[in-house]
Design brief:
Distance between the termini: 48 Å
Pfam families: Spermine_synth
Largest sheet: 7 strands, mixed
Shape: globular
Number of strands: 11
Strand content: 35-45%
Structural class: alpha/beta
Keywords: Polyamine biosynthesis
Order of helices and strands: EEEEHEHEHEHEHEHEE
InterPro entries: SAM-dependent_MTases_sf
Radius of gyration: 16 Å
Helix content: 10-25%
Protein name: Spermidine synthase
Length: 214
Amino acid sequence: MAEVLETVPGHGGELVLRRDGAEFEVIENGMFLMDARNGESERLLVTGAADRLASGARMLIGGLGVGFSLRAALDHAAVGSVVVVEREPAVIAWNRTGPLREVHGAALDDPRVTVVEADLLEWLRTTSEPFDALCLDIDNGPEWTVTEGNASLYAASGLERLSQLLRPGGVLAVWSAGAAPGFTARLRERFAEVDVVEIPVPRGEPDVVWFARG
C-alpha cells in the first residue's frame, strides 16, 4: 500500500506526494499525475529535442514533474541552459529539498538551471525570451489536460504562440500519455517537419512525443 508523505493544496486541486515501495507518485485532484518508476519517454522529450540542436542550446521545460526531463537535459552535451516553468510550489519544494531530490541527483542546484514558479500558459503569453527548444509536459496529453484551460496550448493559436518563441531551427517537443491525431494534424499545419515517436510502456497504450520544427 502506498504511503502518503504529504498532502497540500495546489492550483489544480489537492496535491499528494506518496511512496509506493521505493517509488514516488504525485496525485493532483485525485488524478494520477506522475511517478518515478521509469521516465523513458520524459527523458526522450528533451534528449530527442537536444539531438536536433547545436551546442549551447537554451531550453525551456514546461512542467518539472519528478525531474526526469531536467536531469536528461543537463546531461546532454548540446544543452547550455534550462528554464523550468512549474506552477506548483509544492512540486518545486519536493524536488529542491524534499524526497524527489534523490530522483534526479539535485538537478535544481545546477547553476545552468532557472526555476520559474508560474502557470506556463500565463508565462508564455507575456515572455519575450527566445529558446532553441520548448519541451512541454504539463498534462497527460493534448486531449487529456490536467486543467481545462490548458487545452488552448494545443490549439492552433497556442502553437502559433509557441512558434514565435523558437529561434530559427528551434524544436517544439510535446509529451503525451497517448495518441492525439487531431494534435498531430494541427502540428503539421503549422510546422514543416513533424516527427511522432511512440514509446512502449509496461501497461496500456504507448506514450507519445512529438518533435516539430520549421
